[in-house]
Every structure is written in structure tokens, then in C-alpha cells.
Amino acid sequence: MESLEYLEKDIKEIIIDEETLQARIKELGKEITESYPEGTELILICILRGAMIYMADLARCINLPVSFDFMDVSSYGDSTESSGNVRIIKDLDDSIENKDVLIVEDIIDTGLTLKHIINMLETRNPASIKTTTLLDKPDRREMKQVEVDFNGFEIPDKFVVGYGLDFAEKYRNLPFIGVLKESLYS
Ligand code: XMP
Ligand code: MG
């Protein structure tokens, strides 16, 4: 593939390259498949916008009948720090009552976003709720009670972009996870 020079010049360091990402996602797909009874109809809930690329690749590694739904929440705006406020911008289109759902997140930082989403979806009486996140920053966890069922990679407490993750809506289309040069956000 052509390199994305226009974006790559802003990256200080690649922390997870494309090959490593894709190999781990294959493993996660297998783990997820094996954790459900054969033929379970699974609803994948993409937390927009960051998880869209992860979910697209992950879904193709899950050997079950899956459907997609999307929820957009906001806790960060254009800053790199959590506000602690989680707002629902777009709710699910379909009911999850008596359905098996897997929440697909890009990254768990403080855990506030995921905790809020789980609490809200539990009130809708799904048959089961599991969670997967591509990235986990365990150093920053505030909500110890948030447990992720399928976790891709633990990463250090650095602001990362690429593979769905943005800074001010940019860099989502990089095929790897990288750290932005500090000069761009300080
Ligand atoms: P909390 O703190 O609620 O945050 O667990 C989860 C949400 O915060 C965003 N987030 C990031 N986005 N690079 C990003 O592009 C990062 O390093 C980062 N850390 C947290 C993300 O939207 C996630 O859903
Ligand atoms: Mg973001």
C-alpha cells in the first residue's frame, strides 16, 4: 500500500504496527466466537466513531451470524483529556431486549465511558452483554469495576491515534497505532 505520508509526518512513534494489529484481531475473533454457543446471533455495538475500523476488521474474524448497530457518545471533544461527561449523541437503532450484545470500543482510558454505556444498556434487558476493546490504558483506570471481556493490547498512558482513533478528527485512517508529536497538541 502507498504510505500515507501526509499523516505519517505527524507521528513520533508507531507503537502497534499493522501486522501486529491484524494478527491480534484474528485471535480476538476466534476467542469471541468460541465464547458463545454455536450459532449465537450476536449484535455488535460499535461505539462511534473510534471503534468503526476495529469493528469492521473484527467482525470479519467472528464465525457467528452477527448484526451491526451503532452508538455515538462523547466524552472528550477535541481535547486529549477526559471531561468525565458522557453524552449520548446517537442511540442504537434496534432493540437489544433478549439479544446477545458485544460492545466494541476502541480504547479504555479512565473507564467512565464504558461503565456508563454498560449501565445504560443493562436497563434494556439484553440476554447478555460482553465488551471488547482494542486498546487498554490500565494506568488511568478510575472505575475498577469495569472489566473488559476481550482486550486487544495494553498500552502506556500516551495519547494515541490511528486505526480509528483521532486527534481533532484526523489520523483515523492510519493503519497502525501511533503517538502524535507533542508539538501538535501542546
Ligand atoms: P474513558 O476515559 O472514558 O475514555 O475510558 C474512553 C474514550 O476516550 C477516548 N480516548 C482516546 N482517543 N486517543 C484517542 O484518540 C487516545 O489516546 C484516547 N484515550 C481515550 C476514546 O474516544 C474512548 O472512547
Ligand atoms: Mg476521539
Automatic annotation (TrEMBL):
The UniProt keywords, alphabetically, are: Cytoplasm, Glycosyltransferase, Magnesium, Metal-binding, Nucleotide-binding, Purine salvage, Transferase
Q: Which Pfam families match?
A: Pribosyltran (PF00156)
- Transmembrane region positions? none
InterPro entries documented for this protein: HGPRT, Hxn_phspho_trans, PRTase-like, PRTase_dom
Its GO CC terms are:
cytosol
Q: Where is the signal peptide?
A: none
Q: What CDD domains is this protein classified in? A: PRTases_typeI (cd06223)
Which top-level enzyme class is recorded in the Swiss-Prot or TrEMBL entry? transferase
Q: Which residues form the Phosphoribosyltransferase domain?
A: 21-167
Q: Where in the cell is it found?
A: Cytoplasm
Coarse class of the primary localization is cytoplasm
Q: In which pathway does it act?
A: Purine metabolism; GMP biosynthesis via salvage pathway; GMP from guanine: step 1/1; Purine metabolism; IMP biosynthesis via salvage pathway; IMP from hypoxanthine: step 1/1
Enzymatic reactions? GMP + diphosphate = guanine + 5-phospho-alpha-D-ribose 1-diphosphate; IMP + diphosphate = hypoxanthine + 5-phospho-alpha-D-ribose 1-diphosphate
What are the recorded Gene Ontology BP terms?
Answer: GMP salvage; guanine salvage; hypoxanthine metabolic process; IMP salvage; purine ribonucleoside salvage
**Names of the cofactor(s):** Mg(2+)
According to the UniProt entry, what is the EC number of this protein?
A: 2.4.2.8
Q: Give the molecular function GO annotations.
A: guanine phosphoribosyltransferase activity; hypoxanthine phosphoribosyltransferase activity; magnesium ion binding; nucleotide binding
Family note: Belongs to the purine/pyrimidine phosphoribosyltransferase family.
Q: Which NCBIfam families match?
A: HGPRTase
What does this chain do?
Answer: Purine salvage pathway enzyme that catalyzes the transfer of the ribosyl-5-phosphate group from 5-phospho-alpha-D-ribose 1-diphosphate (PRPP) to the N9 position of the 6-oxopurines hypoxanthine and guanine to form the corresponding ribonucleotides IMP (inosine 5'-monophosphate) and GMP (guanosine 5'-monophosphate), with the release of PPi.
Listed PANTHER family:
HYPOXANTHINE PHOSPHORIBOSYLTRANSFERASE, HYPOXANTHINE-GUANINE PHOSPHORIBOSYLTRANSFERASE
Q: What is this protein called?
A: Hypoxanthine phosphoribosyltransferase
The organism that produces this protein has a lineage beginning with: Bacteria, Bacillati, Bacillota, Clostridia, Halanaerobiales
